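debug: dumping io for the single-chain case to check the tokenizer round-trip. Nothing else runs in this session.
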Amino acid sequence: MLAKKIILIEDNKSDIDLTLRAFKKANIHNPIVILEDGKDALDYIFCQEKYADNDSIEEPELILLDLKLPIIDGIQVLKEIRNNEKTRHYIVIILTSSKEESDLITSYNLGVNSYIRKPVDFTEFVDVIKQIGIYWILLNESPNSIN
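debug: decoded output
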């Protein structure tokens, strides 16, 4: 069985590189789709605009979503995912540097599966990514893992 993809929605190039390095160091080898703004993310997830031909894309194993995104912010992306019958059960993990309590509360009110603040230290960040992989990819049973 092929490893299911992870969607990383992040606009900061340094954070993208850091996340990819952390996945590699944590031995998580799932394919990773990188989307750098909220509109592109929604277009990809819902097979719209330049992704219109992707209507047969397999469901992601999980979505790592930053909140502070250009064009459409992460809160709106989460809201759109949760308001759609096809995508509402997707595993969405907020991975952000935001320390705003309102972001945390709003994310959980919208049905996020987990909210994680990005550690500044690379070693700690790798540990967070490893724990995400162990729990959400290996241990967690979701509708996505039935296929």
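debug: round-trip ok. The first helix runs from residue 13 to 25.
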